[in-house]
Amino acid sequence: MLPPAMNLRALLRTAVLLGCTSATAQVQSTLSDPSVLAAGTTASRSVQQPSTLSTPLRVGLEAGAGVLGGAAVGAFNAWVMQSVLGTQNNSSSTQRLVSLFGAPLGVAVGAPLAVSLTGYTLGERGSFLVSWLSAMAGLAIGGSAYLVSTGISNSQAAQGTYVLALALPVAGAVIGYELSAQAARAAPQGTIVVPTVAVLPQGASAGVAGRF
Predict the structure, then answer these.
(1) I need a surface site. Which of 40, 44, 116, 180 has the fewest CB within 10 A?
(2) How far is it, in rounded angstroms, from Cα 166 to Cα 108?
(3) What 3-state DSSP class applies to 200?
(4) Phi first, then psi: what are they for 126, rounded to 5°?
(5) Element (H, E) at 75
(6) Pair 172, 70: CB distance under 8 Å
């Protein structure tokens, strides 16, 4: 008959072994449960649901919001620039720069803000940073065309290129946001890693288990 101390150690080892075996089985069961695995992905953690609107309607809503947001911020920025630098005594080149960095620059800031907020409300996961950079690229193209045209000629056609400095930032904001949202939809889901512990008669082992 074994001493009481050895019986106690044997009982404790058996209890630990049974408990760890049960925990390991529970971890394996968790990793095989689709509902639990889905809870660990990026898409399921997101509160927003994917947009069910058609692409033309979604893009139209984002573009409309970009126009409104760009117009609001652009008008305010133009008023500030005219109040600070806009005087009749400025040279024509200075006046062109004031007009360029007034409304168009405000549009390049307000449009991506409005587009990103609208896209987020519709359940998209586009990037504001990409939208803003695309809007600034549109401003650079439209603004360059306006400065070059008005530098060469003062005709109405040259002055009309000012529309490009206003429209291209909005177009860039929408295109950039949609491209980043498409990339987010195509991105792989998140990984799941769960620690595991096993106690065997030969000793104990620890590690991780997961699905990638």
Answers:
(1) 44
(2) 8
(3) strand
(4) -70, 170
(5) helix 55-84
(6) no
9, 11, 19 from 23: Cα distances, Å: 21, 18, 6
Side-chain half-sphere exposure of 63, counting CA atoms within 13 A = 12
- Measuring CA to CA, which residue among 98, 100, 99, 103 is closest to residue 74? 103
Question: Could you report the per-residue pLDDT of 104-142, keeping only the tens digit for each?
Answer: 999 999 999 999 999 999 989 899 999 999 999 999 999
Distance, in Å, from the CA atom of 157 to the CA atom of 162, rounded to the nearest integer, reads 10
Q: Taking the CB of residue 8, how many other CB atoms lie within 10 A of it? A: 11
**C-alpha to C-alpha distance for 82 and 24, rounded to whole angstroms:** 70
Whether 210 and 194 have beta carbons less than 8 Å apart is answered as yes
What does the alpha-carbon distance between residue 124 and residue 35 come to, in Å, rounded to a whole number?
Answer: 23
C-alpha distance across the termini of the chain, in Å: 51
